[in-house]
Every structure is written in C-alpha cells, then in structure tokens.
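Take a careful look at the protein record below. Let me know whether the structure tokens fit the sequence:
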Amino acid sequence: MDPIRNPFAPGAGQRPPELAGRERELSAFEVVLQRVARGRPERSLVLTGLRGVGKTVLLGELRSMAVKHRWGAGKIEARPDAELRRPLSAALHRAVRDLAVRHRAPDRVEEVLGVLKAFALRSNKADAKLRDRWQPGIDVPAAQGRADSGDIEIDLVELFTDVAELAADVGTGVALLIDEIQDLQPDDVSALCAACHELSQSGAPLVVVGAGLPHVPAVLSASKSYSERLFRYVRIDRLNREDADRAVLAPIEREDAGIEPEALDALFDASGGYPYFIQAYAKAAWDAAPDDPITVQDVRVAAPEAEQELAVGFFGSRYERATPAEREYLRAMAELTQGRDESAGTSDVAVYLGRKPSSLSPARDSLMKKGLVYSAERGHIAFTVPHFGHYLLSRAMD
C-alpha cells in the first residue's frame, strides 16, 4: 500500500480514530451548548480516562463544536510546575477575541479585556524588576480593583463573571477547555471549583470542560467537598469491537482500499481497543501491506514495528522519567499484575519488594505526580498507561 496515502499517519484523515465511538459524548455536549446559550443552568464537564483513549482529541473536537456555535473558546494544558493565571489568561483572551467580532460595544469589550489584563498581571512577583515582568499582550490599560486582588479564588470568580456577561451580550457562551486537569496546583483547583460554583448559581454562560486521568474526581473532591455537584464526570474508555472496527475501516475505505476480516481480528487483539494503539498498529499494517486488501499476515509482519514505535514514543518516554527507585516500584506492580491492566495493592507491592509500606510512599507519590500511576481505589495503585505492565515485563525479558 502507498505509504504516502496512509490514512493513519498523524494528521491524516478527516476524522481520527480517537473519535470513533464518541457520539454519545459529542451529542451530550451539543445539549450543553444549547442549554447554556438559552440561559438554562448546566454543570461543567470533566472527561476522565487512561492515557491513549483519545481524551485530548475529543477535547479538541468539543472546542470546535463550541466555535461552530459562535461561542468564545480557549484551550490550555495544565502543567504541574506552572500556575494557572498565565495560560488561562491567554485562553480567555482568545475567547474574548472570538466574541469581540460580534459585539456592538467596543468599550464593553475593552472593559472586560482590562479586567483580564489585571488578572494576568498578578502572575508577576511583587518584587520583580520591570524588565522581568511578564506582559500578557492585551492592548488596553489594566483595570483597577477587579480580578487583581492576588487571591486566585476571588480573582477567578470575578474574571469568569465578567467574561460570561460579555458572552451573554451577544447571546452565546464561553467554553474553557483544560487538558491534564489533574496537574493543576491545589490552590488553582480550589479557585476553579469556586468559580464554577458561582457560575452555576448565577446561570452565567461559561462552562469548563476538563480532561484528565481517572483520579480527577478525587482531586476535585479533596479541594471542595461540593465539587461533585459542579461537574458531570464522563469516563472515556477503550472502544468496543464495533467501534474499533469502524475506526479502522472508515479511513481505509476513504482511500478506496480494503482489509480482510481476519486482519481486523488481529488489529483488535493487538490494540485492545485503545484508540492510540489502533492508530499505531493500523498505520504499520498499511505500510507493510504490499497489496490491497490488508491481510492478517500484513498485521503480523507490521506488529513488531508498531510495538517498537510504542516502546520508544509512548512507553519509553514515560519510563525514562522515573528514577531507579520509581522504576523498581513500577516493575513490582507489573510482576504482581502479570502485565495485565489491573490494579495492585500497595501493601502487596511492599511485601513483594521486602520493604515497609512507609518507605515506598515517596516513590509512589512521585509516580502519581508524574502521572505514571494513580490510586484506583483505597489501598490500590494502577498504571495510567494501558499495556504498561506488559511493556515492563517485555523489557525485563529483553
């Protein structure tokens, strides 16, 4: 098959495999957009799931939906070592610009931009020299006395309120999309919950759409006890067989090519239905196939290449971030679960390694902060990356 036409190459195709089987989520967000635009109360949305299930791609599609509805929309990716003010300011600046082209009162837009600038400038340290002070690129004077107290919770409530009112002026809303939401700092999580609570009370047309790892609900709940009332949690999982087949068939058929049923069986067995893996194995199978249609033999020949690519780009890049002590912990988890996508008891890990549970807490906590494991339930730990245990066992054998 012609590698240039490969519909599974990054950026190829009209609809990436990660969106196959996500009609329910897309339809639900369509309802959210319409309800909020009509002044009806609606909870913000949080997508949770393991890595490789397509949360980021789905988040991008939801942003596109908001833009098509003429909403203001901005997207950020949270980072564990960064505060929320700067990236959020940039995202809301973009959302306000989306709204400004339809707003009939330029002074009103500039007023909100002034509040946004005041909020952004509070990210600078009070003792920072002038040459070191960050400027947000908002070409209006900063407002005084609004969203500039330095208390992120107070400031975020005021900023969200003003931006939402600007959207209400033009009969639409604002969507703020936050990827890797579990990496927000505790104060920022608390502020985000408080702002969403204020919005839910007032019915303001601004919704937050977050995406993160399976333990995100626990992170939000630990910050504000009422967070379960603020967000609607949607678990994003691997695809069932029908949707997984559609994720393979649709791109191939767009190229007027075919694939044998046995090859589809082999692709599903290899990928486990995880969209990221479906794309990796299907891409390799397309490149390996000398003729049309793709056969089961093509999939078998291509599998080592796909596995090597995953080992370097998906698994290896994460494994390399772990310290020797953390790698020991990861390998123990893999041995205890026999490479399956299951959780391991923290006490079992300690017994396996012949250590006291308290001595392993630093390694476990660090792995959680790095996003390599999460607390599946009390006393249990699991990999955030599908097939990671199998990768570790294969690495040990090699």
